Every structure is written in structure tokens, then in C-alpha cells.
Amino acid sequence: MRFAGKMRSGVKTAAMLGAVAAASMLILARGGVHAAPAIPDPHSVMADPDQARIDYVENCGGCHGVAGDTVPAHLPELAGRVGWFMCTPEARAYLIRLPNVAHSRIKDNAELADMMNYVVFVLGKGTAPVGTAPFTADEVARERKLALTNKNLTAERLRLANQLVQQCHAPASIRQLYITEKPGTAQ
Amino acid sequence: MKSAAQNFRLSAALRFAAATALGAVALVSASAHAGTVSTEPEESTVNSIPAPKPSWFFVQRGFVLPGTAIYDSATGKYVAQIETATLGDLAIDPNGKYYYSAETHWTRRIHGTRQDYISVYDSTTLKFEGDIDIPGRILVGGREHNFIVSDDGKTGYIYNFSPVSSVNIVDFAKRKFVKSFELPGCADLILNPGVGLAALCSDGSLAAIDLTGGKVDITRTDPFFSATTDPIFDNVQYDKAKGQVVMMSYTGLVYTAKLGAKPTVGAPFSLQEAAGLRKAEAKPLDLNWYPGGGQPTALHRASGHLFVLMHAGEYWTHKDGASEIWDVDLAARKVVKRIAVEGHPTVLNVTQEASPKLIVVAEGEGQGAGSGFAGTAQVIDPATGEIKHSIKDAGSGLVQLAN
């Protein structure tokens, strides 16, 4: 069962990566918001891309959607955006320190690193700066111990988003949870 | 407060009370004579009920059926019905004056503008008194720890999950929403006297939530349970007098935590070992006695006896109905009695009277587990195991008590 599931999702991942490449070119053509699409070969940033995608769908897809695009809703759209958070050390650490990630049922740090690389590089669709180093097991092990448990995450996200706009020239819409969200409506 | 809505709701509540309060309604009207048209206006009156009694229990009709029925465990008789909503949460004023119903509706049934609010009902007339608007609430229903009231009755806490995890604070004296704060990675609100709140967290810890200062301060104990392999049932038992909370894990580990600014969690004991059996394992196919149901534990606070719905089965059957109720003496860490029960109840509570009564509810037949159909409630004497009263079609949801 598990094997068959993996085979099927392998095919889908390949198809999706094609779609991802096409979509990021569209973004370029539309506004030139990003210097260059930086989608590395999945095997260069994940030990097991199929498992990473399966882990994402199983553990995160319920809220974020299988393609990271569950909007409008009171949560951030990952698709085509989340890679920007790799731009500063603080924002990068935030991705692992989110309680949903830090306290994930995935206890194996290498497996969690793989899944987060799937989120950042595949769902992020080229929004991670060119040359961004993927998450490693060591980094995940270190950061997940520092889970953000005593903070207003909405305010923390906005603070980091401002950093991304100022320091990395991320589009101003990164401050919103999703592009069509009216500013100030997020709770 | 919304006055237009109030008028509508008031009359609806009255009509409802008139239709449902069995025998409580005296319709005073002259019978119509053949051939003549009476111009006398029809007069009707509605009885009132006392403030909630320790023998009363409140049964949610079902997971998807609105309404909460009040029964008296002393008589087995129906008292009245509170107009709680589908997927709503009932909270009972500890001073016995009000019933609070946390609800959610959209302006157009399942779309349009979402509205979250708490409806306030007078406890003796069941008259609607007004709404308190809140920014949101978790849309679950049937859980005890999503809407709780402070021991003095002045403050309400409503868990929200938008899916940002947060808590709304409501001032019941002013009938106003006060503020909300984020509670990352935790849920299941527990009162924490002198501090604010406590909650269970996804890393297996207990959070202390300090609400005494301007800034909400959330600290956590070290992790003591695994939310993945052996989670704690959400129906934890809060004991104000002892300042503690008693918690049960899926495999039957019983934990007691001392509440406070820095809660401390004691070493757990195994329910099965307390009954002279082999400790259950968090392993697939492990056959043993396990706690199970939607509301599987109830604490008789004065005597320190914990009652637990138990069934024989495999690990990870935590929703299964019970074939026995285990009576656990917490101080002695011993199962002192095993009471056989019929109908596989999934919901349990115990009155706080000197001679307590157990209330169990089994879901209705027909559509299978989780259907939310009203089933039979039983009042059981824990001393003898005798069924004192059996009430058909009582409900299937939570059983709550006034104290």
C-alpha cells in the first residue's frame, strides 16, 4: 500500500514540478518581482522528495492545502511566497520555530528538514533567494527547541515580513497572509 | 447587545420554552363555543424553574442536534431545555444566575458574514437577555474546555482556532468582550486560580497563562506526555479546592498536576496496574482495558474518586464506548470497584453531592458511532451499581453539571 502510494505521488511530484516552473515564469513575466526563478533540483535539497511531499500533505495539508494555497483563510498562503522567509536568519528560523512545525509529529530531524525544504523550495516556487542553503537536520534540531510559544505569532510574522520587504525587496504583499487579503483583516 | 435581534430571540425563546417545558405551561384560555367567535385574547403563562441544583445534569442533545436538556438525577425527570446551538458550547454561571451559550452563525446559513457570540439566558425563566459579540471561537462543540467561566462567575474564556490558536476574554458583569490573546500550540482551557489559565500543549507540556499583568505571559512545564503516541483526553478534571487538575492519557496513565504560576506534574500511575492488571502499552494491537469515549472521566472532588469509562480493546480505541466504569481512589492509587454498564456509553459525569450519582449517556442507535443521535441516559448509584433512572432519547453530547 505504502509502496503504491509512493509511486503515485512520485509521478504527481514530477508533474507538479513542471507546473511550478511554468508558474514561476509567469510571475516573472507579470511583474519581475524576483531576480530569477531559483528552483533547485529536488534531489539536491531533499534526500527523499516523495516522502517529503507525503509528510507535508499528511501533516500540514489539512490547514495549508495540498498545494499550499488554502486562501482566503486566516493563515498564510505558502504557494509562491514562503521562500522569501529564507532571506534573513531570523525569518528562516521562524519557519522551524512555528509550533506546528517545531512540535510536529515528525520527530526525525532529517525527515522534518526534508519536508521543510519541500515547503520552501517546491511550494515556495522560486521565491527563496538564489543560492539559499537548504535546511539541515542539525539546524532543525537546534531551532525546533526554540519554538515560539509565548508570542503573538501574527505580530511576529508582520515584523519579519517588514524585514523581508526592507532588506530583501520582497513584494509589499508579503505582509498580508495572501495577495488578495485586505490589509488589517487578519486576526 | 442587539435590540432588534433581542426581540426576535426573546419571543423565540418563549415559544420554545412554552413548547418544551413539559407540564410547565398552563394555557389559560376559554374553549371556543360552537357558532360563536371568542374575542377574548388567549392568555398563556410560563413557569419558572429554580436555580441549578447539585442533582441536576445538563445533556447536550447531540453532536449535530441543537439544545441542552436539563434532568434531575434525583427524580429522573426532565426539567427544561436551554437553547444551545448546533456545535455550540454551554457554560453555567457558578452563581447559578445565568446560562451562557457560545454560538456561531453565518448571515446566510453556511456563507455570508460569520457571527460569533455568547447568548445570555436567565437561569430561572430561561429568558434570553442579550448577546455578547466575540471575534471567533473554535467550531467544534461537545467539549468541556473550550468555553469556561472563572470561579467567581465574572469572566468567560472562549478558545478560538481560526486556525490561529487564541483565547477570547469576556467580562460577564459588563457583558462585553474584553480582549483576545494568542496561545500558540496549546488548547484545552483550565482555570488556574490567582494566575489566569492553564492549557495542554502539543509538545506534551502544561502551559501556565499569566493574565495578572498587562502582557499575557505563557510559560510551560517540561513535556510529560506524548501528543503523538499517548495523548491526554481533553476532559481533564479541575479541582479548585485542591488547586489541581487530574488528567488521563489514552493508555490509562493518570496524571495529577498542581496548578499555579509554575505548575508541577506528579509521576503518573497506570489505571490497569491500579486494578491489578498489566499496564497498557502504546503499541498497535496491544489488548487491554482502555479508557474511551467523548467524556471518559469524571472526578468526585470531595472524596477524590475518579470514575472512568473502560472497555476491553486494542491500543488507539479511545473513542469506544464502555462496558465498565472503574472507580479509582486517587489517593490510594487503587481501582476500588468495577461497575458493569450497558449500551456502551461514551459520556460520563458524576454529581458532586455527598452521595454522588453517575450519569452515563450512550449515543443513539441507527447511524453508528459519531452520528450524534440522541441516546439513553442512565443515572447509576456508584455505591451499588444500581441503575436509578433510565431516560430514553436524552441526548448524546456532553453531560455538564452546575458545580
Compose a concise summary of this entry.
Chain A has 187 residues and is mainly α. Helix content of chain A is 53%, strand content 0%.
Supply the helix-strand structural class of chain B. mainly beta
What do the pLDDT scores of chain B average to? 90
Q: In CATH, what is the class of chain A?
A: Mainly Alpha
Largest interface: A-B, 20 and 23 residues
Q: Give the amount of beta strand of chain A, in percent.
A: under 5%
Largest sheet of chain A: none
How far from one another are the termini of chain A? 41 Å
Q: Outline of chain B, from the CA principal axes?
A: globular
Strand-residue proportion of chain B: 35-45%
Coarse structural class of chain A: mainly alpha
- Total beta strand runs of chain B: 32
Computed over alpha carbons, the radius of gyration of chain B is: 22 Å
What is the domain tally of chain A? 1
Uncertain stretches of 5 or more adjacent residues of chain A? 1-35
**H-E order of chain A:** HHHHHHHHH
Which stretches of chain B of 5+ consecutive residues score pLDDT under 50?
A: 1-32
